[in-house]
Amino acid sequence: MAEAAAVTGAASPTGGTARRLLANPRVVLGGAVLVFFALAALFAPLIAPHDPVEQDLLLQYVPPAWSDKAEAGYLFGTDNLGRDILSRLIYGARVALFVAVAAAAAAGLLGTALGLLAGYLGGWVDTVISRLVEIWMAFPAVLLSIVLVAVMGTGLHSVIIAIAVIDWTRFCRVVRAETMAQKQQDYVASAVTVGLGRMRILWREILPNVLPLLIVLFTLEMGIAVIVEAILSYVNLSLASDFPTWGGMISDGRKYVNQAPWLMILPILCVIALVLALNALGDGLKDALDPVMRR
Amino acid sequence: MTATPPAVGPTLSVRDLHLAIAGRRRDTPILRGVSLDIAPGEVHGLVGESGAGKTMIGKAVLGIQPSRARIAAGSVLFDGRDITHLPERERRRLMGRGMGLIPQDPMTSLNPAHRIGAQIADVLRLHLGLDRAAAGARTLELLNEVHIRAPERVVRQYPHELSGGMRQRVSIAIAFACRPKLIVADEPTTALDVTVQRQVLALIKRMQAQEDASILFVTHDLGVVAKICDRVTVLHGGRVLETGATRRIVEAPGHDYTRALIAATPRHDRPGGLLRPVPEALTARLDAEALAYDAARGSHG
Ligand SMILES: Nc1ncnc2c1ncn2[C@@H]1O[C@H](COP(=O)(O)OP(=O)(O)O)[C@@H](O)[C@H]1O
Ligand SMILES: [Mg+2]
Questions:
Q1: Which ligand is nearest to the CA of B32?
Q2: What is d(CA B243, CA B232) in angstroms, rounded to the nearest whole number?
Q3: B73 domain-assigned
Q4: 3-state secondary structure A128-153
Q5: Which of A198, B58, B146, B181 is the most exposed place for a label (fewest CB within 10 A)?
Q6: H or E segment at B36?
Q7: CA distances from B159 to A5, A247, B100, B155 (A)
Q8: Which residues in chain A are contacts of B94 at CB distance < 8 A?
């Protein structure tokens, strides 16, 4: 992923930040798991041993390799239609991460823009935006996302839009507070006294100082997006069900949980691993970048 | 009266400035009719204890007073032009080329996210219309002028990589970059080590003389005033107690408070000499005067 590079590039003027990041076990561990999934997603066609949608009715319910009834070439076994689980998990990582990055980016863009404006301009702009956030947050998120996708129609783009439309408030609230704090800093007064314009100060002077925080929020939001996408594909509101998504696999596997529990357990483990990794990474980045933000 | 020929008006003229912080119930007066003039090329000291309103005067001059601050009466004239309520766009044009700021705390006044070189070059490009290469070259010159060694390396560094003294030199370079007529220096040496203080003070004086700029020099330290200022204004509770040539103020103070301030200032010619804090009775009397002033103003509307 570009994450690691973005962190060191944006927030770290020197090697100091990079070193602090590498000294943080949560950053290293979370980052490693994320990179693992990201590589799998990126190179899925090269890595996946089988076509993830190809059915083989002679090879149904093959158990994983550690069982004695396993078949060579099917590490995690096959499902009710004889499709290779490992290949489906790998392609599922693609969907999960694509949605995570796209949704976090969309929510981040919208929320950050509004948060910056509210925090910097204050006055009626702040009042309007803050009130909007309050109203927005009064709706239960998961319900709202299901309604949204139901209205927009299923598909990845709907999932991404739904997550962005719901979760921009997370970015907005935090960015607004941080912008208000940054606005009080002396460097902003200095920028005014050399004649920089207001918008220039907001985008070019304050925003770079909010960036470390944004990276943290972005990472945490990716974790949330992974869960929401899983939920939506579980209830069949994401991609068509033959295309592999982790949530879809969990939903399919539930029907055969007695015969073939691995059909459900393996995708659940993937969701948990990726979400935990993203949360650990986000929390670790928060700690590691904190001195940068307070500098 | 100063020795300036009558044809040349003051660079800065603060006229009877009243500033209050708006509160829920009522406004809190901060400046109570402050007046001072600064001639071209003059270094004008503004002294007083913490809380006197020195910083607020500097901010009001630059137009960066807090949003809750209300200028109730009086005016700020720059080069004879009333800039008290200047629209943002026009004030922006005045900044940099007309006036600049040397801030108090060099640790927080530079942007932590940008390289030193960019912070200086941005100002040059904005006001002088220099292209990237010319701005870069001029940046190196400016850093040389403020005695920063190895400027080629420093331009690529971030503020936190520099010492306090170095950062203050950078701030001075930025303040003088577009040759402003007036610089507000708000306790520019207070946050620095004693040895560095002396060097930075000498640097400000040299740059000021070289550019023939006027400086509003805010400080609580009369020792510093004696070294660098031509004239001094003594402030307490947002009121001007007296104004005069530095020499006259130091040798023949006209106000009890000035005398008390002098007695409270460490002297290099009498190291180890007894320092007396400003007597509480005097402070109490001045505070009472300030309240009486507010009451009198209030009753007049
Ligand atoms: N942003 C602000 N809001 C409210 N009161 C302020 C603010 N800034 C300064 N003051 C008040 O204004 C008075 C003068 O402050 P200041 O100009 O900073 O004094 P000085 O620089 O002489 O120490 C003080 O009583 C201070 O509490
Ligand atoms: Mg002050």
A1: 1
A2: 6
A3: yes
A4: HHHHHHHHHHCCCHHHHHHHHHHHHC
A5: A198
A6: strand B28-38
A7: 22, 48, 20, 10
A8: 195
State how far the Cα of B169 lies from the Cα of B147, in Å rounded to an integer: 8
Closest CA–CA distance from residue B220 to any residue of chain A (Å): 20
Q: Is the CB of B60 under 6 A from ligand 1?
A: no
How does residue B145 score in pLDDT terms, banded at 50, 70 and 90?
very high
Distance CA A214, CA A178 (A): 10
Residue corresponding to tokens 């971030």: B158
The residue segments making up the domain with residue B288 are 12-98+178-299
Predicted confidence (pLDDT) per residue in B227-246, tens digit: 999 999 999 999 999 999 99
Rounded Cα distance, B218 and B47, in Å:
6
Q: Do B126 and A196 touch (CB under 8 A)?
A: yes
A155 CB within 8 Å of a chain B CB? no
* Pairing mode, strands B12-21 and B81-82: unpaired
Domain total in chain B: 1
Cα angle for residues A24, A29, A34 (degrees, 5° grid): 125
Distance from CA of B2 to the nearest CA of A (A): 29
Residue B124 lies inside a defined structural domain of this protein: no
Report pLDDT digits (tens) over B23-64. Answer: 888 889 999 999 999 999 999 999 999 999 999 999 999 999
Q: What is the CATH number of the domain that holds B209?
A: 3.40.50.300
Considering the domain boundaries, does residue B48 fall inside one?
yes
Give dist(CA A238, CA A234) in Å, integer.
8
Average pLDDT over residues A198-214: 95
Helix pair A85-121, A207-234: axis angle to 10 deg? 140
A106 has pLDDT over 80: yes
Helix (H, G, I), strand (E, B) or coil at B115: coil
CATH topology of domain A26-294: MetI-like fold (1.10.3720)
This model of the complex carries an ipTM of 0.86
Contacts of B110 in chain A (CB under 8 A): 187, 190
Q: Are the Cβ atoms of B109 and A192 closer than 8 angstroms?
A: no
Pick the range with the lowest mean pLDDT from A57-66, A188-197, A246-255, B10-19: A57-66
For residue B153, tell me if it sits in a domain: no
